[in-house]
Amino acid sequence: MSQDIHIHSWPCSYYLDTRKQWVSGRLSLTPVAIRFTADKTGELLVDFHLSSISEIKKESSNLIFSSLTILEKNTKHWFSSLQPSRNVVFNILEHFWREQLLSSQGAGAEAAALQPTKGKELTGLLTGSQKRLEDTAKVLHYQGEQFENIMRGLNKIEGDMDVADRLLTELESPSWWPFSSKLWKTPLETKPKESATVSDSKHQEGILIRIPVIITHRTDSNVKPGKLTLFASGLEISDCNSQVLHRFDSKDVDDIRVHTPYEISVRQRFIGKPDTSFRLLSARMPEVIPILEMQFSKKMQFLEDALGFVGARKSPQVDLGTSIWQAATGLLGGVVQPSSPEGGREGMDNDQVQLQKQEKVSQEEAKELKQILKKLKGLALETEAELERQDEALDSITTSVDRATLNIDKQNRRIKKLT
């Protein structure tokens, strides 16, 4: 993904210390940097990395103007006349700055360790694939539970249709028929309450992913920090105190618009009253979008600024499975059976020897890779079996619906004759 993706920009003024004057322009935010461009000259006056920021504060300039200050290394940058408001810009900048610090700390910890090898890179790739497959399995498991609930509902409908059929038969029977009263004595089939089991499964539902977000509700200009939580059955938006602002079940979501790789909007339409809509911005949104695609593929809409992200992300995935298995097989094979004897290295220069050493996979890494591949294979088999079960359930549901439709039509005709 390009680091020059434009996340947000705001009209504002910047205090240029060399000229001792305020310059109007636009403050821009990218995933890794902050920039300010002057309106009149188009000159780039500010351009620094988020990781170089040590402090972001709300202050006042000349005791009058509300300003935003950013301390970058030993330089303090002043921004004022921020639109739509200083709080909006502060919340967004602080969010991306903190997330950048967290990622930088993780990168620093990795850099402090040994130089990453091909084995570690492949382990990370397979671990990511395992996480995606686990998320897919959770979603499919929830869909399987929904199919079971539908089947129970259809079975109850069929039972009610049988009762209705007996009642209609009683009504159609002549008054002198001696056995008609027995039809009324047929005990109704009682079934346990299913709503409790459905609600219990919802409360026991696992979390797919939870990320910090900046929330804008409907068309309000104010933004506030919060959290986005994805479940297999939908998504939940809460504030920074973990108080739930709104929960969207899968059936409630009408559309999800991806404005940029870092910003989405979720909407539920209503007739006769305003839609429920939330706009969510997060530095970790690229982790969430693939899961949303899996859950709401028909409801996702990628706008122009996000189309490049989709192409860049999807194109390598076409052969992702093949590349993973081929790379794993090749690397593991290289550990068990080295491809070239020691004598074959005599003609290599130092760079080639060093490159070959770097591409080696240690026995510990190979063991870890084998374990991950074994888990992936098990997950893949479980997912395939679940898909087959859901195909069978869909066929059964379709048959039951067709049968119920025919029975309803038949009973409607019988009722018309009686009336």
Automatic annotation (TrEMBL):
What does the organism's lineage look like at the top?
A: Eukaryota, Metazoa, Chordata, Craniata, Vertebrata
Record's InterPro entries? PH-like_dom_sf, T_SNARE_dom
The coiled-coil segments of this chain are 355-393
Record key words, sorted:
Coiled coil, Cytoplasm, Membrane, Repeat
Q: Which Gene3D superfamilies match?
A: 1.20.5.110, Pleckstrin-homology domain (PH domain)/Phosphotyrosine-binding domain (PTB)
Q: Which GO terms describe its biological process?
A: synaptic vesicle fusion to presynaptic active zone membrane; synaptic vesicle priming
Q: What is this protein called?
A: Synaptosomal-associated protein 47
Q: Which residues form the T-SNARE coiled-coil homology domain?
A: 356-418
The record's similarity note reads: Belongs to the SVAP1 family.
Q: Does the keyword ATP-binding apply?
A: no
**KW Membrane (keyword) present:** yes
List the gene name: Snap47
As for subcellular location, the record says: Cytoplasm, Perinuclear region; Endomembrane system
Q: According to the lineage, what is the superkingdom?
A: Eukaryota
